[in-house]
Amino acid sequence: MATVVSFINFKGGVGKTTLSVELAASLYKKFNSRVLMVDLDPQSNCTLYWLNEADWERQINEKGTLLSFFEACLDDKPFDISSIIATPTRFAKSPWYQQFDLRLNRGIKLVPSDMQLFGVDLRLAQRFGFENPKAQLFLKKALAAIDNQYDFIFIDCPPNLYLATQNGLFASQYYVVVALAEYLSTLGIAHIQASINSVFSSANNIIGTEAFKKPSLAGIVFNKVRYLSGGTQSQEDFMSRIRAKYPESVFKSYVSQSDKIAQRPAQSEPIALSDYAVDQKYADQIHTVAEEFYDRITRP
Question: What pLDDT is recorded for position 74?
Answer without folding.
Answer: 97
